[in-house]
Amino acid sequence: MSAILATEIRGTVTWLGTQRRPVERLEIFGEELAEMPLTLAGYAEEVHAGETRPSCSRVLALHPRGTEIRNSRQLSVVSAEELAEVAQGLGLDRLDPAWLGASLVVSGIPDFTHLPPSSRLQGPDGVTLVVDMENRPCQEPAVTIAKATGGQGKGFKAAARGKRGITAWVERAGVLRPGDALRLFVPDQRAWAPLAGLRGAAD
Q1: Which of 15, 138, 173, 190 has the fewest CB within 10 Å, making it most exposed?
Q2: CA-wise closest residue to 116 among 167, 187, 183
Q3: Which CATH superfamily is domain 4-189 in?
């Protein structure tokens, strides 16, 4: 029996993009794409591509900064619906996904940022992305948004909390295009029982 459960939930790719090397520190330089060919190392032109990466602040509890580790954050995936909520929280009509360094914007999947780790998103040609974990808000988008809007990015971290999307890596190569349907697969297991206690101890 498969350990991955197929659901009838499907999202739609509404935007594709890539993040290039920033011109300045703490600034994001993203651009829209017409299609995204993916290998097991991610999208070749993306700053986060590669089968390995140097560890960062997200995993300091595990590894000294800069340690070579498996790259489980090749892509940044955000929800169209959550992106609209973040924009509203900032008093903006819309947020350009390029300001966030997004790789994909997906519509139609509820509570997207909290998808279970190890969930899969599979495209029409079999291309498959594996959810790593929630992508916590950081300062770079705030700086980029503020520059683009004349100062309205300062509250980004608070507005995007719990709505920043997920990081993901490529399990099966293929090509993504705007309009593609992504079928959601989730791990076929219950939530880990001690987790509630761990979260309570951390509060």
Answers
A1: 190
A2: 187
A3: PK beta-barrel domain-like (2.40.33.20)
Which amino acid appears at position 79 of this protein? Answer: S
Cα–Cα distance between 134 and 113 in angstroms, integer? 6
Residues 188, 158: contact at Cβ < 8 Å?
A: no
What six digits make up the tokens of 76? 């940044």
Residue 50 DSSP SS3: coil
**Which pLDDT band holds residue 201 (cuts at 50, 70, 90)?**
low
List pLDDT tens digits, range 155-180: 899 999 999 999 999 999 999 999 99
Average predicted confidence (pLDDT) for the chain: 91
User: Which among 77, 112, 108, 106 is positioned nearest to 14, based on CA atoms?
Assistant: 106
Question: At CA 41, angle to CA 35 and CA 47, rounded to 5?
Answer: 70
pLDDT of residue 48: 92
pLDDT of residue 56: 87
* Least trusted range by pLDDT, from 109-118, 143-152, 168-177: 143-152
Per-residue b or e along 146-170, where b marks 16 or more CB atoms closer than 10 Å to that residue's CB = bebeeebbeebeebbeebbbbbbbb
d(CA 134, CA 15): 19
